[in-house]
Structure formats: structure tokens, C-alpha cells
């Protein structure tokens, strides 16, 4: 996607929501989730190459707006993303996002894309990738607690990557569960709509919590969690927002993306600063062990990290080749003489008068 002709330098490929949906349908949703997981896994293997920093967050009483930057030394990427739980009451998305990938050697953008849909896809792909390493062998049943915008993507990624075939769904809003049941009814799952979190986790080897309210909540209590399960805790993603009782964390082996960010935003914000965690890249590279024995409780305290968005941007850039599913945006100044930006503006005045 990198421009090679001088006349193309001002044009940046832009992927709209419509074209992102066309790209997903062209590739196939399961195949795209598997592909994204592969790119994310590759970048966890290259973890030491990346510039890493907790996301830059602007918090308000209504939500948060964040920037998530990183670079591997050759490409630079960032995502702009918000999180406003009240938005659904106003007919808006809780999370919206866009992202950019750039060439480190010259600073020029290579890709600008919507990332509202793409964030849902990469979050699901990350969850399933982690579960591939940490979930019990042969796990085929997942409890999905929180049946909002993420739920179907989470389910389909777990199906495509981990072989999950049974879903037990619960949300405090029955309409959300009805929506998820309807959307997943033809996707090859054995579906059960549940009336409580306790009912949802019965027989589940994987428990995914993905609720939206920005508060210290207790979606799971310690007595609800039996030995041997994998907990995919992805709803706690900002300061002041958690889903699990602290006693669950004390019993589990906790895996995180980037500790300096997770200690601010994740479930472990409830714990002392020295609470032990394992970084997931260490499991991928074999530096640390993941699941060691059948009765072990593993917990992924997933808050979403910039490298995962970087992976998603790389994946989209590579899949766009030859599709035509982007629009060239004229968003970079490209004067005939790179030193004469003012002259370009003056000539535009003449052109406007003519």
C-alpha cells in the first residue's frame, strides 16, 4: 500500500466502515478472525522490538478518550478510541475508533482506517488466541456474561480458534441476550439463554466477562469459580471499572498484556502493586508456562494494548492489496518544491480566482 510514485505521495488509502464490512465479507469472518490472531501472535513474538507505553487517556464523568501508539521501528501505528457506557442509551456506540499506520523512515501515513468494527474483531481474536494457550484442553463450552456489541465476535473467535461449540449467554438486559441468541442462531452453536451469571457458568470451561458499566462491579464472586476454568476478563478496561472479586485473582494465575497499563485499568487495579502476573508474550515465546495442570485457574486480564491494534492495521494493509476496497484521501501537502509550502498556497489562490 506504500506509494511509489511522486504523484501519489499526497494520497493515503482510507478504509471506510462500508469497505471494512465488504472486506470482512470478502475474506469471511472466521477466516479473518484466524488471520488477525496470527498477526497478533506474531507481534507478541516480536514483543521486545516495540515501543510500549500505557495508552494516553483523557477521562471524564461520562467516559474516556484514548490514544494507543506503538512502533516496531519500521512502522508506526496508533488508534483513537473512546469508551462511553452511556452512549447506548442515546442510540450511539459505546466504543468508536479509527487508526493510522505510518512509515517510520519518512513519517508518511500508509493507511487510515475505521477501527470501530476492527477493534471488535481484534479484541475477539486476542481473547481466542490467549484461550488457545491457557484454556483447558478440549474446552468446548463458554459462558458469555455481557451480551453487548462484543459478544458475537467473542463467540465466533472462540469457535474458529479454540473449537468452542456451546454457548451459555447472560446479560442483565434480557434484550441483549435475545439479540445475541438471534445473531448466533445460525452459526453452529448449541445456545442456552441464562437468567443469571451463576446459571451461565454451569459446565463452562471458559468464562468471558464483557460488561459495559464504568464501575467497580462483582460479576463473578469467588465461590462461583471452580477449579480448572479459564476466565477471559475483558470488561474491566479503565480505572474504576472491574468485574471480578479480588479473591478470584488471588486463586488464579493472572496473565496480562502490558503490566504498567493493566495495573491502572485492569482487574489487578484492585491488587497491590507487586501482585504477581505473567506477561502473555512470555507464554507465546516459551519464556513462561501457561496452563500447567488441569485444576489450575487461568485468568486473562485483558484491557487491549496498542500492539494488537498495530497487528490489526498491518493485517488490513496486507489484505487490501488488489481489492480496491479503499478510497485515496488527499490529506498530505505535496508541493512541487518540498520547501515551498507557501508557494503552493499562493498558487491555489490564483487557481481559485481563475
TrEMBL record:
It comes from the Bacteria. The keyword RNA-binding does not apply. It holds the Pfam family OCD_Mu_crystall. Gene3D superfamilies: NAD(P)-binding Rossmann-like Domain, ornithine cyclodeaminase, domain 1. GO terms for molecular function: ornithine cyclodeaminase activity. Keywords: Lyase. The keyword Lyase applies. Its EC number is 4.3.1.12. It is an enzyme of class 4 (lyase). Coiled coil: none annotated. NCBIfam families: PRK07589.1. PANTHER family: KETIMINE REDUCTASE MU-CRYSTALLIN. This is Ornithine cyclodeaminase.
Amino acid at each position: 500500500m506504500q506509494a511509489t510514485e511522486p504523484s501519489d505521495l499526497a494520497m493515503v488509502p482510507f478504509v471506510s466502515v462500508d469497505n471494512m464490512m465488504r472486506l470482512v465479507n470478502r475474506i469471511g469472518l472466521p477466516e479473518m478472525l484466524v488471520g488477525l490472531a496470527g498477526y497478533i501472535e506474531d507481534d507478541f513474538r516480536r514483543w521486545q522490538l516495540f515501543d510500549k507505553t500505557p495508552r494516553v487517556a483523557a477521562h471524564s464523568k461520562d467516559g474516556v478518550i484514548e490514544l494507543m501508539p506503538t512502533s516496531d521501528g519500521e512502522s508506526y501505528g496508533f488508534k483513537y478510541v473512546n469508551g462511553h457506557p452511556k452512549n447506548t442509551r442515546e442510540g450511539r456506540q459505546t466504543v468508536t475508533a479509527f487508526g493510522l499506520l505510518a512509515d517510520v523512515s519518512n513519517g508518511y501515513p500508509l493507511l487510515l482506517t475505521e477501527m470501530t468494527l476492527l477493534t471488535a474483531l481484534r479484541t475477539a481474536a486476542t481473547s481466542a488466541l490467549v484461550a488457545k494457550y491457557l484454556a483447558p484442553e478440549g474446552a468446548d463450552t463458554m459462558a458469555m456474561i455481557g451480551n453487548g456489541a462484543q459478544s458475537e465476535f467473542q463467540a465466533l473467535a472462540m469457535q474458529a480458534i479454540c473449537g468452542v461449540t456451546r454457548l451459555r449467554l447472560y446479560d442483565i438486559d434480557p434484550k441483549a441476550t435475545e439479540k445475541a441468541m438471534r445473531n448466533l442462531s445460525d452459526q453452529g452453536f448449541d445456545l442456552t439463554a441464562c437468567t443469571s451469571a451463576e446459571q451461565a457458568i454451569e459446565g463452562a470451561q471458559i468464562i468471558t466477562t464483557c460488561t459495559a458499566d464504568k464501575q467497580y462491579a462483582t460479576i463473578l464472586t469467588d465461590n462461583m469459580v471452580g477449579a480448572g476454568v479459564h476466565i477471559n476478563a475483558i470488561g474491566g478496561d479503565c480505572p474504576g471499572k472491574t468485574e471480578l472479586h479480588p479473591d478470584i485473582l488471588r486463586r488464579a494465575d493472572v496473565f496480562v498484556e502490558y503490566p504498567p497499563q493493566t495495573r491502572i485499568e485492569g482487574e489487578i487495579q484492585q491488587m497491590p502493586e507487586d501482585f504477581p502476573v505473567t506477561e502473555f508474550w512470555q507464554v507465546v515465546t516459551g519464556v513462561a508456562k501457561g496452563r500447567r495442570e488441569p485444576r489450575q485457574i487461568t485468568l486473562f486480564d485483558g484491557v487491549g494494548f496498542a500492539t494488537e491494534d498495530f497487528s490489526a492495521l498491518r493485517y488490513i494493509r496486507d489484505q487490501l492489496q488488489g481489492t480496491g476496497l479503499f478510497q485515496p484521501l488527499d490529506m498530505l501537502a505535496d508541493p512541487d518544491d518540498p520547501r515551498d509550502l507557501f508557494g503552493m498556497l499562493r498558487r491555489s489562490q490564483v487557481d481559485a480566482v481563475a
